[in-house]
Amino acid sequence: MARRCPFCYEKVHKLASVCPHCHRDMAGQSDSSQKRPGGIGLCSGVVMGLMGIATGALAVILVGFLKERQKWEES
């Protein structure tokens, strides 16, 4: 069974105290800290999705407004 180095994220033997890839000390690093930092969590993903939908809707409204304005200026 292997775990991931918290520094280089390479697979390392579960009993290793030093990573053979980046040579950093892994003593004291528990398996619960094996998540990659900076990952997008569920809440962040939902917020980013809603922001994307809002941005798309705003773009559609803006394009519609500009087309109507162009029609209004031509008449």
Short description:
The chain is mainly alpha-helical and 75 residues long. Helices cover 44% and strands 8% of the residues.
What does this structure look like?
This protein is mainly alpha-helical and 75 residues long. It has two domains: 33 residues; 36 residues. 44% of the residues lie in helices and 8% in strands. It contains one helix and two strands. Strands 1-2 form a two-stranded antiparallel ribbon. Strand 1 and strand 2 form a beta hairpin. The protein starts with a strand and ends with a helix. The relative contact order is 0.10. The mean pLDDT is 84.
Strand order of the largest sheet: 1-2
How many β-strand stretches?
2
Radius of gyration: 25 Å
Q: Whole-Å distance between the termini?
A: 74 Å
Mean pLDDT: 84
User: What is the total domain count?
Assistant: 2
- In DSSP terms (H or I, runs of 4 or more residues), the helix count works out at 1
The helicity comes to: 40-55%
Characterize the largest beta sheet: strand count, sense, and whether it forms a barrel. 2 strands, antiparallel
- Beta-strand fraction estimate: 5-15%
* Parts with pLDDT < 50 across at least 5 consecutive residues: none
Question: Which structural category fits the helices and strands?
Answer: mainly alpha
